[in-house]
Amino acid sequence: MTYERFEDLPVWKAAIELAIKIYALTEKTPFRRKYSLRDQIERAALSISNNIAEGFERGTTQELLTFIYISRGSAGEVRSMLCFTERLPAFKDFKSEISNLKVEAEGISRQLRAWADSLQNSEIKGQRYLNEKEQALVKNKKEKDEFLNMLKSYKK
Q: Nearest-CA neighbor of 65 among 73, 56, 77, 74?
């Protein structure tokens, strides 16, 4: 499936949901006196979706890949801070919530890795490079592949 807008990407939606949940967690009492931790985890969580958006809008596959890996790094940063937070005595009542957030961040990281893998094997350089001739070639290849897949399904 081809996405026209980053807002339609499932991984972007998941990243936004994670950021919302991180912000909800940081509203809780134990974060009130831990300003730097609160600020850092909020910024890292929001960075995931922001870098997906920026990479998507850049127009080249290589730039998109770069920003996907930056997003993955931010997801790892969120997980690391959650691992640290759950070890602090002040957060003992939030261990389950923190654990769930770590699972979500890891899932986003896996989605980003799969997307990066698929892009690395793509022949398309990106929207910025698609002139009319290239667009026609890509369209013809896609139609050919769809037709061959349809034929394969009839053989079954």
A: 56
